[in-house]
Amino acid sequence: MIGRTISPSEATDFQFCQKFWYNRRHLCMIPQKIGYKELAAMMGQTVGWMYDLHIRQEPFDGIEYFTTNLEAQLACGRQYDYNGVEEYVPKVKQLILNHFKSLCESEPRWLGDGKIIASEPVMAMWGNSRQDLVIELPSGKGMVVDIKCKLKADSPKFATSRDIDLNGNQAQMYPLAWNSLNLPLKIKVMRFVYLQDGREPIIEDTIINIKRTERWLQAYHNVVGQINILEAHPESMANRITENPYHITPWGYPCEYLNYCMQGENPQGALGEFIQIQRVRT
Ligand code: SF4
Hints:
Elements: H1 8-16, H2 18-26, E1 29-31, E2 33-34, H3 36-56, H4 62-75, E3 79-80, H5 85-105, H6 107-110, E4 115-119, E5 122-123, E6 129-130, E7 133-136, E8 142-149, H7 158-167, H8 169-179, E9 187-195, E10 202-207, H9 210-232, H10 237-240, H11 258-262, H12 267-273, E11 274-276
Parallel strand pairs: 2-3, 8-9
Antiparallel strand pairs: 1-11, 4-7, 5-6, 7-8, 9-10
Helix pairs in contact: 1-2, 1-9, 3-4, 3-5, 8-9
Bound molecules: iron/sulfur cluster.
């Protein structure tokens, strides 16, 4: 592989819209506003971190971890969005505790007789991407478990996000990344555990489809090649990327760069709506 390595999620950004990838991954523009989506992402990250330390039998304080992350975001110049986001933060802290408890209590359902052999393994050749858990099943086959923390039970977007999880390329790209490491354990199943407040977790499996993964692997390498060619000529990159013509995310929301792009990428718009945080390249 030439150039830098790229994670499946970065490749997916590029496939959704090259300009989206350019804005987020090259210009490193992230929305100034912290909304429910960002809180949900931080909550999921926190619960995954807690569970990782829990199985390593190391001490952890999830609320402190979440609070520190949130304060670091605010210190970068980000602000809460208007519609009750700040007031919702205590609820998120309670949800973190509830989800972690639910994850532990439901272990017999989602782990069964399986054995956890890796937690948050970092795959350097795949842009340092991580999987939540890798499990060896009694059959000797492997399974990836992806933990999803929901802000609300019965969210109207749940059906859409479930379909994206089960049928989208990321469900298969992460097992594909693991399988490319030539380890004896081969991933055959991707399991999603949806944690919902006040409800039993929903567990959904998708079987890894060899033909699909071969196709995605080819598409992934095409994307890696395109990104590395673009990055070799940064001065002309902005003129060589394409746009998604609809500007709507797969979840049905307007793209976060909608105003900026539709207003001709006015630098004033960028200053007003986004902050820039340089990422460490791999
Ligand atoms: S608004 Fe449209 S063109 Fe701009 S980044 Fe989003 S999807 Fe791409």
